[in-house]
Write a structure and sequence with these properties.
Four copies of one chain form a homotetramer. Chain A is about 75% helix and about 0% strand. By secondary structure, chain A is mostly helical. Chain A folds into two domains: about 55 residues, Homeodomain-like (Arc Repressor Mutant, subunit A), CATH 1.10.10; about 100 residues, no CATH class. The radius of gyration of chain A is 18 Å and the shape is elongated. Chains A and B meet through helix 6, helix 8 and helix 9 of A and helix 6, helix 8 and helix 9 of B. The first copy, chain A, binds a DNA duplex through helix 3.
Chain lengths: ~170, ~170, ~170, ~170
DNA sequence: GATGAATGAGCCTTCATTCAT
DNA sequence: AATGAATGAAGGCTCATTCAT
């Protein structure tokens, strides 16, 4: 991965996240990255190839995060960890998550590569805690996850800490 | 509103919702509507004018829904009504909500015309129920609303009824 | 010629003269005239038909002017009359002349319907005055005519009266 | 300036001059130049940018011509030089001058960048020759210039040499 | 690896024109 | 006579992509 390749990925991530994939032209990406138009295609074949390279990078980072959660033994800690993710999206990851969520609504089918493992982990936690319907509870956690991410990325409410408290209370966390 | 105008709005709503606003060309809208491309511009001035006409229609429908909730007296019924909305998005409204949520991620700033009144209603309900932090609880309801809508519109889980049960239990509804 | 027909001709003349024939759309003419788009075509068949109707009107007015000049007996008076035309373009004729001159430069071939008779009259006058090369002198008068019209219609110099004096001196008028 | 850029300028100059700026489409320019339409915009940004590039080229050529006239000492030679210009428009400059004159009639305001310096030079010459009203005489020279250019570019009379003789006689040149 | 000239398809929009009312 | 909805072609312009250097 050369320096220019990274510049391109960085620029594309930023622009795609801010304006949307199809609203950003490759020439704008090139300008933002300070490289020639042709270079994007030499490195990433396609505009879509560029997108997939970004997503791949993100997927790796996300999987390592999820890997950490699996290691947790106490089921309450597991739920705490999962539901804390959206509260802790920091600036460097902000663009990536925004892009993911924006793309969800344009893709032909829903990408479950992230949610499926997360649901499994949550369902196990609820089972261990003796919840009567761990599957539905796990699904509700995914729902909360999406809602929280939407809030954190778009609405940006000021009282996130209080919201977390109110939420955790419902699960006795 | 002539017959062709409605055909155009209908086609545009469908395509914009499915593929995203900027990924759909006016010529595709025209073809889907069975209409010449020029007619779109005679009636809606712009591609953006077309979008705004759609949003206006939806806003009206949404406001009448919200109007119904304000009339409810029992605060538990109020919360039940709000949180039930996403479960009851029917087919005719499906496209509209999908478009709204897709656009959230592309707009420059978050449109609060829907969420602000809803938050107020929810906060009042929580206050009446004696919750200690009604503002945070109301925000959490908005978050759940977004998460539920995302699920209903994108992931489409099969056990929605059980999820609703699990959710309502947390609020003793 | 109905009232609306005249409104259309008037509007078209004004707009064509100001912005140029091909830069003005029929819909703009319709709006300026306060009539529907279709009416232009019912009355004038074509956008070009509209132009020709304007030109025809102008041609008639111009020919009647020229007819007056032929009646003059004294050759000096004749020259005075011809060369005075451009100085006396009044406001009502301004649009028409501007259009004529603008079109000269776009037409495929030069329209001589105006210049040919004028040249003949001028050549006769110079012959009567004993000029050695009346044909060339007549051509020079046409040239002056065009130059004066250009000045009066475009550059609008403030000292037109002095210019006329300087010019007439050269012909001992 | 690549070879294709020059091809585009050449083609545009020819077509704009012959048919008028707004009557010529960029696709026609591209076809005439043997070039893809997109290339016009890569090199000249706009259709108007293309026009301005042409005008800039012409302005440079014209200014160097005018520069030659300022160097002349004898005022009669100066007038001879100015009034000779229109007679000596050669084929390579023909398109450019035609375009200039055609545009005069479409522009919102008259471009004096050429006429103002020329008027100054002429006024000085007349002053040196002791004319009583050099300003008006200079204006008359501009008028003759425009008329002569119109003749040379549009009407194309056969006896230009005799006309020049008749004209010069009036100034004892 | 990197540039940027070049392309052709497609985009949004406007236009002249037709036609039912 | 008059309207204005409707059309299809064309207009200016942008885009993703290719290729010679």
């Amino acid at each position: 991965m050369t320096e220019k390749q990274e510049k391109i990925l960085e620029a594309a991530l930023k622009l795609f996240a801010e304006k949307g994939y199809s609203a950003v032209s490759t020439s704008k990406v090139a300008r933002e990255a300070g490289v020639s138009e042709g270079l994007i295609f030499r490195h990433f074949t396609n505009k879509e190839g560029l997108l997939q390279a970004i997503m791949e990078q993100g997927r790796e980072r996300a999987q390592s995060l999820l890997g950490g959660v699996v290691m947790i033994e106490d089921p309450k800690d597991t739920l705490r960890a999962i539901l804390s993710f959206p509260f802790e999206i920091n600036k460097s990851e902000h663009h990536y998550w925004r892009l993911i969520y924006a793309l969800k609504w344009q893709a032909d089918e829903y990408d479950q590569s992230m949610s499926l493992p997360m649901k499994k982990i949550a369902a196990d936690a609820f089972r261990n805690l003796g919840y009567s319907n761990p599957e539905a509870e796990a699904e509700l956690v995914l729902i909360l996850f999406d809602g929280l991410a939407t809030a954190q990325l778009l609405r940006k409410p000021s009282n996130m800490e209080e919201i977390r408290r109110a939420l955790f209370d419902k699960y006795y966390l």
